[in-house]
Amino acid sequence: MSISLPREPDFAKAGGLVPAIAQDADNGEVLMMAWMNPEAFAETLATGRAVYFSRSRGKLWRKGEESGHVQTVVSIFVDCDADCLLLKVRQEGAACHEGYRTCFFRQIGQDETMILGERLVDPAQAYGKKP
Amino acid sequence: MSISLPREPDFAKAGGLVPAIAQDADNGEVLMMAWMNPEAFAETLATGRAVYFSRSRGKLWRKGEESGHVQTVVSIFVDCDADCLLLKVRQEGAACHEGYRTCFFRQIGQDETMILGERLVDPAQAYGKKP
């Protein structure tokens, strides 16, 4: 079933930025959550590469631009309230700037927090600086 | 590998609320994204049922309290920046208030938005009001 609306998330309602979840299109692993503004969303749609808005740097963040760990977008979903996006992606290398494939590499248990993921990449090598 | 810190997300850095992604623990489907404050997070940990903070209602939202569509939490992950949570859950019925299993039932295509999910539940029945 196809409908005409909406073509994009409701950025205005969300205060300008909507959360965007990146999920591995092949194995379903949730890789990261970042933010998109209208420009990031438009460039993602146009290029098929995930582009976010970095709140800390205050500018577009073309994922993998520096590290080479790009995300090729397979499909994009918007939620019922049109204020959150889900991107199914093919992830090159590691999604996480700490070198793990997923940013969600720490499990919170009842008594302790465990690191479950394995580092794929040395952050110092990927970004040319110490982790 | 287990570490002592952090036991919980950095709510202060996130402005009091952190995004929490709910993912089906069995098939990996991303079901919804909502928000947690420290109280919601603590109650989720203590009860093993997902509890969010409703920004529109300004209070705790015990998921499924009204509809019966509860989420039993299997595991909780925190991301690298400690400002986003991932909950792996067993979802009773439909996660979405519109009656779909996932809130991400609409795919954004190049030319149109398509509804891919099927309604499991009539929202009017689940919530006693018209959708």
Could you explain how this protein is built, in words?
The structure is a homodimer of 131-residue chains. The first copy, chain A, is mostly beta strands. Chain A has a domain at 18-97: Phosphoribosyl-AMP cyclohydrolase (Ubiquitin-like (UB roll), Roll). Helices cover 11% and strands 34% of the residues of chain A. Chain A has two helices and nine strands, in the order βββαββββββα. Chain A has helices spanning 38-47, 123-127; strands at residues 2-3, 18-24, 30-36, 51-54, 59-62, 71-78, 85-91, 106-108, 113-115. In chain A, the strands form three sheets. The first copy, chain A, has a four-stranded mixed β-sheet with strand order 3-2-7-6, covered by helices on one side. A two-stranded antiparallel ribbon of chain A has the order 4-5. Chain A has a two-stranded antiparallel ribbon with strand order 8-9. Chain A is globular and about 40 Å long. Residues 1-5 of chain A have low confidence and may be disordered. Chain A binds chain B through residues 1-8, 19, 21, 23, 27-30, 32-33, 45, 75-81, 84, 86, 96-98, 100, 103-108, 110, 112-116, and chain B through 1-8, 19, 21, 23, 27-30, 32-33, 45, 75-81, 84, 86, 96-98, 100, 103-110, 112-116. Strand 6 (71-78) of chain A pairs antiparallel with strand 8 (106-108) of chain B, so a sheet runs across the interface.
